[in-house]
Predict the structure.
Amino acid sequence: MFRDRSLVPAEAVRLLALGALMERERRYGELATEIRFFTQRIVGPSLDLLGSSLELLRIEGLADTVENHAEEEKTLLRITPQGRALFQELMSAQLRAPVNDVGRLVLLLKLRFLKLLPPDFQEDQLDLLCDVVRTERARAADLAKEYGDSAIAEWIRFDVALSDRRLEWLESALEDLGVTV
């Protein structure tokens, strides 16, 4: 993790792997394919996201083998208690603003795996995401004001409107948890 407790790219990949195993047991090859698919669709091809081998999950005791197979890619994996603990720690990481490609990946992972957390942790994560979106919105609104009615200001106002929609969604999710917004 960085000093501000936000995830480095390799930890984002680890969060994705552990979260996928939290959802259900998976074959090694299936897990590798899912990680590659998800990260490339969000960030695009990136050397930063060529995480460490999934084999490290087993070596570090974060996942174990349910069923061995002669072909490694068909070996069935499941998450261990240590893996669950690390998953929760990674899910509680901060999110940096402004949100870059890796930050967007982490944000989407937090949303994807939110349902796997206890309600109080879900609330904390939704609050964190609200704060990040509010910060992004404030920056964009400030910048749009600076450029008046120019083309760049119009474009930036799209970002402001998108932030407003995201805040509405996040606040609705908080209300679904019984939190008064």
Notes: Residues 6 and 93 are 5 Å apart (CA to CA).
